[in-house]
TrEMBL record:
<feature type="transmembrane region" description="Helical">
    <location>
        <begin position="520"/>
        <end position="538"/>
    </location>
</feature>
<feature type="transmembrane region" description="Helical">
    <location>
        <begin position="593"/>
        <end position="614"/>
    </location>
</feature>
<feature type="transmembrane region" description="Helical">
    <location>
        <begin position="480"/>
        <end position="499"/>
    </location>
</feature>
<dbReference type="Pfam" id="PF05729">
    <property type="entry name" value="NACHT"/>
</dbReference>
<feature type="transmembrane region" description="Helical">
    <location>
        <begin position="454"/>
        <end position="474"/>
    </location>
</feature>
<keyword id="KW-0472">Membrane</keyword>
<feature type="domain" description="NACHT">
    <location>
        <begin position="161"/>
        <end position="283"/>
    </location>
</feature>
<dbReference type="InterPro" id="IPR007111">
    <property type="entry name" value="NACHT_NTPase"/>
</dbReference>
<protein>
    <submittedName>
        <fullName>NACHT domain-containing protein</fullName>
    </submittedName>
</protein>
<feature type="transmembrane region" description="Helical">
    <location>
        <begin position="550"/>
        <end position="572"/>
    </location>
</feature>
<feature type="transmembrane region" description="Helical">
    <location>
        <begin position="620"/>
        <end position="638"/>
    </location>
</feature>
<keyword id="KW-1133">Transmembrane helix</keyword>
<feature type="transmembrane region" description="Helical">
    <location>
        <begin position="12"/>
        <end position="30"/>
    </location>
</feature>
<keyword id="KW-0812">Transmembrane</keyword>
<dbReference type="InterPro" id="IPR027417">
    <property type="entry name" value="P-loop_NTPase"/>
</dbReference>
<feature type="transmembrane region" description="Helical">
    <location>
        <begin position="42"/>
        <end position="63"/>
    </location>
</feature>
Length: 712
């Protein structure tokens, strides 16, 4: 928590510095206004008024943040009670179950039945701990085809309840982990730990050296309902620290070599005697990490899949076919059962291969003759053929829904070529990432291109509007140009952090709003008094008789602006308290709503400011300018601007053809098509093999472009 407090302190100090700089600008404008001709003096005086009010509000915000940091730093935090923990566990179990049941439907994991892939304890003794520590001499996973209920019972029979699921590419490691998670949730007894699935790629061992710290950050990010005020403070941290979670860590193999070893070392260092764990990884990568570490994952059972025999694969495919299939299917199934199609038998020995055959030929009702042709050749060629046909098959088999949203059907029409091109672009950006090659975040799209053109373009646009208002409505083009340049620089400097910010949350329910605003009244009154004092001082510097007028204007608008804008933003930026897990689309919508309410608050202050300055005899253009300043304040305040950064970035990507203008609609539809999956607020390619296939295609295209053209 010390890092969090230090960050809050530095942020508060930064706000104070901005407030002092704005106050210095106001004083500078004040000295200019006294020497300016009448029209220019009015405009500069108005600019001084706006800068003064803004500086007072900013200073008040910085002081409040600093005092809040000091109180929380000095006061001991209230520890959650046992009732709080039990309630939080029940809420979390419901959220996880809801989230992964929906993903199970989208992935067709149980349709028509789970794939008959047997699992058994590994025979590679160098990968597993002493047998007596794991299962007290009993063989927990004998390698027979087991129902997921039996698998859950076998897991619960382990003394330490730690399991490593190994296997080659496409063998169904994640599928088994998800099915096991849901079964453990379905049969969960009171007091049992809550299983939560999280991608290994999201753990940065340098930021979170301990597993518990990472799990707490993960819960706070993906399940914000756990931070509801009704549950008490520190619930995610308490659940992780007290061992109330069963982490299901998926995809250890997706990390670089050294990172895998570091994670295994951190797990062994973090796990207490009774901590539980499920981990998935490719066999060879796990073996390499164990060899480099010189140790295994303590007290963990290790299982591997057994290749599905051709007869079982043929029976499964036959169960997926309609009662009266195409005649050619009988030839395919006969060749598979008798060994006449060895490549097909090798591909369908894994869950990925079975799924590819289902999607490309069964779901589309296509002629399966190519399966016989490729099935007698190379397994690699058949696999590439199925991956090539995957996107066209899914797009043709799942046309857009006409009415309400449906889980299996997209909501918009895309061509296979568009889907392939845009997914290939995302694959390229993930491959180039130095941090995470698996998790695709919509707010990270802004990190893939330079932000300077967008920031300068936005700054020039805002500066031009300010200059135009001053020149056309105020009749002072020189002063307007100066203010336009200042506005432009303000936008360029303040928007730099937008493209690195994570999405925020907004809660539009009225619950707690009145109480929150009432609590903000004393601080608003103090800010109003501070504004009155500064307004009186600056007013007397310009005109000895204008002190009280300036004090009234600055004090009134400062207090109102502080309460309406900053208190309202503080309210909506707190974590969402509705009982739902976060998804990519929900985080996008939440940050959009947050932006809307900030703009509404800024406009409200602008309108109030317009009436204040209008009532003192200033012109209508001055009132209009107040409204524009309020709008600008609403855009700039707050700590979450991911939606704004996204909307500034996507049009540039669309002009390049890298993504559509409706990028979030496309990502959501790619998820509905089954090409992407969700893991909390992130998208991932449903199968790493598809991502690798697209990456190979991209590399081959680049290689062909670089090849010299032979001379005639």
């Amino acid at each position: 928590m010390s890092g969090q407090y230090a960050h809050r302190k530095s942020r508060a100090v930064g706000v104070l510095i901005w407030g002092l700089l704005l106050l210095a600008v106001a004083v500078g404008l004040l000295s200019v206004s006294g020497r300016s001709p009448a029209p220019n003096g009015i405009v500069v005086g108005f600019a001084t008024f706006v800068a003064t009010v803004t500086s007072v509000i900013t200073l008040g915000s910085g002081v409040r943040q600093l005092l809040s940091w000091w109180r929380e730093h000095r006061a001991p935090a209230r520890a959650p009670t046992s009732a709080d923990i039990d309630t939080a566990k029940d809420i979390l179990a419901g959220l996880v179950s809801e989230q992964w049941r929906e993903e199970t439907v989208l992935r067709s994991l149980g349709d028509p039945e789970p794939m008959p892939l047997p699992w058994r304890s590994t025979e590679r003794r160098e990968l597993v701990d002493h047998p007596g520590i794991i299962a007290k001499g009993a063989v927990a996973f004998p390698g027979l085809p087991m129902h997921i209920k039996d698998m859950a019972c076998g897991f619960r029979a382990l003394p330490c309840r730690r399991l490593v699921i190994l296997g080659g590419p496409g063998t169904g490691k994640t599928t088994l982990a998800v099915q096991l998670l849901l079964e453990l949730l379905r049969t969960r007894e009171p007091g049992e730990r809550v299983p939560v699935l999280v991608s290994a790629a999201r753990w940065d061992e340098r930021v979170h050296p301990r597993l518990q710290d990472w799990l707490a950050a993960f819960l706070a990010m993906d399940y914000p309902a756990l931070r509801a005020e009704a549950l008490g403070p520190g619930i995610p941290e308490a659940l992780a620290a007290r061992g109330e979670l069963l982490p299901v860590i998926d995809g250890l193999d997706e990390l670089p070599d050294h990172a895998r070893t570091d994670m295994l070392r951190a797990l062994n260092r973090s796990l207490c005697e009774n901590d539980e764990l499920i981990l998935t990884c490719r066999t060879e990568q796990f073996a390499e990490s164990v060899d480099e570490l010189g140790d295994v994952l303590t007290a963990s059972a290790v299982i591997e899949p057994q290749p599905m025999d051709a007869v079982a694969a043929a029976d499964y495919l036959e169960a997926c076919l309609p009662p009266v299939p195409r005649p050619a299917w009988s030839q395919v199934l006969h060749a598979l059962r008798t060994g006449a199609a060895p490549a097909l038998a090798q591909v369908t020995s894994t869950s990925l291969g079975l799924w590819l055959v289902r999607v490309t030929y069964i779901a589309t009702r296509a002629d399966p003759a190519p399966l016989l042709e490729y099935g007698k050749g190379s397994a690699a060629e058949l696999h590439d053929h199925l991956c090539d046909e995957l996107i066209p098959a899914l797009v043709s088999a799942r046309p857009p829904a006409d009415g309400p949203a449906q889980p299996f059907r997209p909501q918009h029409a895309w061509t296979p070529e568009q889907v392939d091109r845009w997914l290939t672009y995302l694959c390229r950006e993930l491959s180039a990432s130095e941090v995470d090659t698996r998790d695709l975040a919509w707010w990270h799209l802004a990190r893939h291109i330079s932000t300077w053109p967008v920031r300068w373009g936005s700054g020039i646009a805002v500066g031009a509007v300010v200059a135009l208002v001053c020149a056309v409505l105020g009749g002072v083009p020189v002063v307007g140009a100066g203010l336009g340049v200042l506005s432009m620089l303000l936008i360029v400097l303040t928007t730099g952090s937008w493209f690195r910010e994570a999405p925020g949350h907004a809660d539009f329910h009225l619950r707690g709003m009145i109480l929150g605003l009432v609590k903000a009244l004393p601080a608003g009154i103090l800010v109003g008094v501070l504004g009155a004092v500064i307004g009186w001082l600056t007013g007397r510097l310009r005109d000895p008789h204008a002190g009280m007028t300036a004090a009234t204007q600055v004090g009134l608008l400062s207090g109102i602006g502080f309460i309406v804008v900053l208190s309202l933003v503080q309210w909506v930026e707190r974590p969402a308290t509705d009982a739902s897990a976060r998804s990519p689309l929900s985080t996008w919508q939440a940050d959009r709503n947050l932006t809307a309410i900030r703009i509404a608050g800024g406009l409200a202050v602008g309108v109030i400011g317009a009436f204040v300055v209008w009532g003192t005899g200033l012109s209508f253009p001055a009132g209009l300018a107040c409204g524009l300043v309020g709008l600008l304040i609403g855009l700039l305040v707050g700590r979450h601007h991911a939606w704004l950064a996204y909307n500034l970035t996507v049009p540039r990507l669309a002009t390049r053809g890298s993504l559509p203008l409706r990028a979030m609609n496309f990502l959501d539809d790619a998820h509905r098509l089954g090409l992407l999956r969700t893991e909390g607020p992130y998208y991932q390619f449903r199968h790493v093999e598809l991502q690798e296939h697209l990456a190979r295609q991209l590399a081959e295209k680049k290689h062909r472009h670089r090849e010299p053209v032979p001379l005639a």
